[in-house]
Fold:
Amino acid sequence: MTHPPQGALAAAAAAVPGVDLPGLDRVLAIANDKGGVGKTSITANLAALYAAAGYRVLAVDLNRQANLSDDLGYRGTAIDDQGSGLLMALIAGQPLQPVEAPGRPGLHVVPGGVRLHDLTAVMTGRVQTEGAAWQRALARVLAPVASAYDLVLIDTPPENTLLIDLALGAARWLLMPTRTDAGGLVGMQLLAERFTVARRVNAPLGLLGVVLFGTSRTARAIHASVREQVEAAFGLPSSPMLTAMIGHSERIANQSRARGRVAHELESDAASQPAWWESLRRGERVQGRIPPTASNVAEDYRRLAAEVLDRLAAAEVQGATGE
Ligand SMILES: Nc1ncnc2c1ncn2[C@@H]1O[C@H](COP(=O)(O)OP(=O)(O)OP(=O)(O)O)[C@@H](O)[C@H]1O
Ligand SMILES: [Mg+2]
Structure:
């Protein structure tokens, strides 16, 4: 499943050591320069859904805040090294050792956290000493482990060009969430620039799709306008916008992060909670209950998960047949 680089990009890529790293064909960076557009929620939900469906999945967290550890519920547990494993792999060449996410067989994680604090400064130094090859640092760290997984998802931080570049230097695909507001779209334009830069050292990098996040399902005119802006930013002939979108639901989002349970897990937790009148009789607070709207959000993520797999499969068939 290799995708030969093409044309001028191939020539540029060939000049960078380590460009032909194997096993990275199913590495997805979930990125947007803008904060709060759903990068972590999407990484957590897709990772847990794919693992539940029987895929072997690795989720890598490049964030200091490590919200992925909240969404997947491992913050402060024995596996939470707060990013030190990832840091040591990137700066000292130690082998990356993904760990199993508790309660989710098939899902491994490389935690992020406060230990990543120094990473940006170290990587800035590498830019001076290594030139363009520095951007393949994460690719080199992931390559020995990535082929053990069907999918590798990288959750990226906002407004951190170096770490975004690192993720785009390792990924085969970019999945970009955006909100429909102007801020999300500015972030998208900045990311489109980083995408072009990354392809100089990582020629196979492609845009898998753009996903609308936290939007009203019926705001069709707004969705159409965003679609146009996305097409213009990436200069693509066909729309990268995915049909699936994640509807707005702050209540489910808050419950999800507070409980460390992603949407489809909340949906099944909701189904097994006592009837509301029983809770009321027992004096339990109705506000603490999982609302039935968890199913809507879970369904949005299921659709997204399916569409992402469809796009991957279609792109891989195209790559294999050289179309
Ligand atoms: N379906 C949703 N509707 C509305 N808000 C949501 C939804 N899902 C998550 N949120 C909220 O949106 C905020 C941003 O989500 P998330 O953390 O996934 O974005 P992010 O891009 O990773 O942010 P950051 O750039 O800070 O890492 C969070 O407060 C989260 O609770
Ligand atoms: Mg995040």
Notes: Residues 294-321 form the longest helix (28 residues). The chain has one domain: 22-321.
